[in-house]
User: What shape does this take?
Amino acid sequence: MGEDARGCQVFILGEKTIQTTLLAEFLRLNLRDHCLVLDDIPENELRSLNGGTSLLLMDFSFLTEDVLVSLLDRVTDERRKQTFVAIFNVNREEPHDYFLEWPEVRGIFYDDTTQGQLLKGVRALLEGECWFARDFVTRYLHRHRAGKKRPAGSTQAVLTSKEQQILDYVATGHSNKEIASRLNISDRTVKTHVYNIFKKINVKN
Assistant: This one.
């Protein structure tokens, strides 16, 4: 990689421009953690990322779709359970729901996302949460439920009212602690609900 990745939690995969350099500095100052900008991850070097929880921010405006898909497959194949991925600089008007086919993709940031929202999202992702826009999740659910009948005796085909409520909070950027406080339940219960929600909508966790 050309830089020391030890102890680093956040990696930005994209062209080394003024924008990505400033973004890395912004995250470093606000997260009080090292943040590296990488323009490539050579074969087998995903393993050299921090052994703890790592977040890989992939720049959609820099990576071609083929390269992006290849990188996502590598993260999955190497089974880096502590490495999560978020895609940023995504155009809302272009198809991007296929990102949810990879369980490691935990968040999407659009090209009009503010710095404050980006920081809030990155913090949530590092805490093991997801960061998706409400309309994005809603479209995904409608499309994948369309024409599907609930199997007899199945409990996985429909979200409960509590799960739908939690999904709405998650999709609008609320943290587990905020959701727990609003619903008067424990953080652990919220995490269990989130796990069950993604299992029901066929997003592997």
User: Anything to note?
Assistant: The chain has seven helices and five strands. The first strand starts at residue 10 and ends at 13. Confidence is low (pLDDT under 50) at residues 1-7, 152-157.
